[in-house]
Amino acid sequence: MFRKLSYAACAFAVGLKNKVDLPDSPLLSDNSVSKLNLQRCLMPRVSAGTGDCQLYVGDRIKRAVGFPQLTACCKPLRYKDFIISYDTKNRIPNWVYEHLQYHKFYKDDPCDRRVNVCPYNEDNQTGQEKPKFHPDCRIHGYHRADVRDYCDTEYELGLMADPANYPFDSEACAETQVMTNVVPIVPGFSCGPWFDLQCYIREKLVRENKSVYVCSGPLFLPSENDGKVQMRFDVLGEGEVSVPSHFFKVGSLSVEIKSVWHYCA
């Protein structure tokens, strides 16, 4: 017997503003762009075999927990290990959905010869350089954000799908650097409560429950000024990338109920 449980938390981007100078980053060359599997946005990928573990990650998520409602301005984009609902109006993701599994993080078999290939992890054993931010050519150029939009601003490039979630998969780790996965954050945001929440999901929820579905994304919440409720937010660069006021991260997991407890109050 199984029961769906949800773990939810909200991290707030407040108060931390410092001058940040980000270098320009060239767009991908034609050869680099060709490495993106554009068919992922057109049809599901089903591997040879049976069982949910063989289904494309988006199909597994949709079957297990479902997707948030899509809007007119969003474009669903498939990647190897996560799916993004991209907001073409604000030029940031609406949400990013990941399926985190125990066997992709930890090695229990002494014969497992996988090495940590994600250059963002401290125990990376390959010595390779960190992948650069790159655009997704499935998005029209008018609706794309660019790293140059962040130059000479008070904001940094934040990632919704964390590269640390893919320690043994260089392709999935590199795909987290796509600009459709990027949102503006204040300096230090990803090192505070947001980082603690990500570690909690990886080190506790995934380790104890083997499989966790995680949805992350930005929020635009109104503020009250002189008795009036207003929606105000910054926009960055020529692309007018919208800066959210808050962020959310929700994890859904399945647990086996071995005994039933009744509480009375």
Automatic annotation (TrEMBL):
Protein name, entry field: DNA/RNA non-specific endonuclease domain-containing protein
Instruction: Specify the DNA/RNA non-specific endonuclease/pyrophosphatase/phosphodiesterase domain's residue ranges.
Output: 78-265
The ENPP1-3/EXOG-like endonuclease/phosphodiesterase domain is annotated at 79-260
Stored SMART domains: Endonuclease_NS, NUC
Q: Organism classification, top ranks?
A: Eukaryota, Metazoa, Spiralia, Lophotrochozoa, Mollusca
Listed PANTHER family: ENDONUCLEASE G, MITOCHONDRIAL, ENDONUCLEASE RELATED
Name any GO cellular component annotation: nucleus
The UniProt family comment states: Belongs to the DNA/RNA non-specific endonuclease family.
GO MF annotations in UniProt: metal ion binding; nucleic acid binding; RNA endonuclease activity; single-stranded DNA endodeoxyribonuclease activity
Organism equals: Biomphalaria glabrata (Bloodfluke planorb)
Record-linked InterPro entries:
DNA/RNA_non-sp_Endonuclease_sf (IPR044929), Endo_G_ENPP1-like_dom (IPR001604), ENPP1-3/EXOG-like_nuc-like (IPR020821), His-Me_finger_sf (IPR044925), Non-specific_endonuclease (IPR040255)
Gene Ontology BP term (one): apoptotic DNA fragmentation
A Pfam family the protein falls into = Endonuclease_NS
